[in-house]
């Protein structure tokens, strides 16, 4: 018969891995979610009637703005990179059974009682959503490749929308409603002259839209022409005068541009 130590050891290993990341911004969410990487691959449905599609969507919406998880397409840098943070644990080949149960218990404990020094609010997710997110992260963290099947299309790729086109002096470029650090499109066109650029934002994540000359990509290279106010649930706008050429629009929130929240405007 197994001793109590046999059952306690996996839980202590999980807690130990979690404690190593505590104290960082938003670490409680990252720690709790990434701890379940020991779960194996599965379909859209997993154990305990979890829904991996719902889990991916919820992760992107609730945690993706702070954490990088390659298969989810999130590139947040405020909190730990989940793939890197738990790669060693995955490579150790932790097995199902008591270890998985211990880690899952620790996951729920950390989310229900988050690190007071972190940025994650209490009960950010709970109930079925918590189980769905944990199961999705368990399947994909530190795993090479891309999601397949229904999971691949669960969340639209960042910036994959149709190019925005200016009409009557107005150009609408929305922030990704899913919570990704991206605009819905990475390309836009406009005619020379005064242009009001509107950024609808329904994500709940604070974003703005700024304009600079040239095609700077993730790094600032040109002169900034203007920027909107920040918003989480409304439409922000900025008016600039554009000459023929190429311009970059981007979000000024710390880390957002570097994570991929930018695009190019071509003016003719």
Descriptive labels:
alpha/beta, 2 domains, 6-stranded mixed sheet, 3-stranded mixed sheet, 11 strands, elongated
Write the layout of secondary structure elements.
Elements: H1 4-19, H2 27-34, H3 52-62, E1 68-69, E2 74-75, H4 82-85, H5 87-91, H6 98-112, H7 127-140, H8 149-152, E3 164-165, E4 170-172, E5 187-190, E6 193-200, E7 210-213, E8 224-227, E9 235-242, E10 245-250, E11 262-267
Parallel strand pairs: 3-5, 4-6, 5-11
Antiparallel strand pairs: 1-2, 6-9, 7-8, 7-10, 10-11
Could you provide a short overview of the structure?
The protein has 268 residues and is α/β, with parallel strands linked by helices.
| Count of separate structural domains | 2
> Which outline best applies?
elongated
Please state the CA-atom Rg, rounded to the nearest Å: 21 Å
Taken as a percent bin, the fraction of beta residues is 15-25%
Total helical elements: 8
N to C succession of SSEs: HHHEEHHHHHEEEEEEEEE
Strands, count: 11
User: How much helical structure, as a percent, in the residues?
Assistant: 25-40%
Global mean pLDDT: 81
Whole-Å distance between the termini? 77 Å
Q: Which regions have little confidence, pLDDT < 50, spanning 5+ residues? A: 1-11, 16-43, 96-102
Structural class: alpha/beta
Largest sheet: 6 strands, mixed
The largest sheet has its strands arranged as 3-5-11-10-7-8
């Amino acid at each position: 018969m197994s001793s109590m130590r046999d059952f306690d050891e996996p839980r202590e290993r999980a807690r130990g891995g979690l404690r190593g990341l505590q104290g960082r911004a938003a670490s409680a969410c990252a720690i709790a979610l990434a701890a379940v990487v020991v779960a194996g691959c599965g379909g859209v449905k997993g154990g305990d009637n979890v829904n991996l599609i719902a889990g991916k969507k919820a992760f992107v919406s609730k945690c993706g703005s702070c954490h990088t998880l390659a298969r989810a397409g999130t590139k947040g840098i405020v909190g730990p990179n989940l793939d890197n943070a738990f790669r060693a644990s995955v490579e150790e080949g932790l097995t199902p059974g008591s270890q998985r149960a211990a880690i899952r218990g620790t996951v729920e404990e950390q989310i229900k009682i988050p690190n007071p020094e972190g940025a994650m609010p209490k009960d950010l997710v709970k109930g079925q959503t918590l189980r769905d997110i944990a199961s999705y992260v368990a399947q994909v963290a530190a795993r090479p490749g891309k999601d397949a099947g229904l999971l691949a299309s669960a969340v639209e790729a960042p910036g994959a929308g149709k190019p925005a086109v200016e009409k009557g002096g107005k150009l609408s470029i929305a922030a990704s409603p899913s919570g990704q650090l991206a605009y819905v499109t990475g390309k836009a066109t406009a005619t020379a002259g005064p242009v009001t650029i509107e950024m609808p934002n329904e994500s709940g994540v604070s974003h703005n839209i700024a304009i600079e000359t040239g095609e700077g990509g993730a790094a600032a290279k040109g002169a900034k022409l203007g920027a909107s106010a920040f918003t989480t649930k409304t439409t922000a706008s900025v008016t600039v005068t554009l000459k023929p050429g190429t311009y970059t629009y981007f979000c000024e929130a710390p880390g957002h541009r570097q994570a991929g929240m930018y695009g190019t405007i071509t003016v003719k």
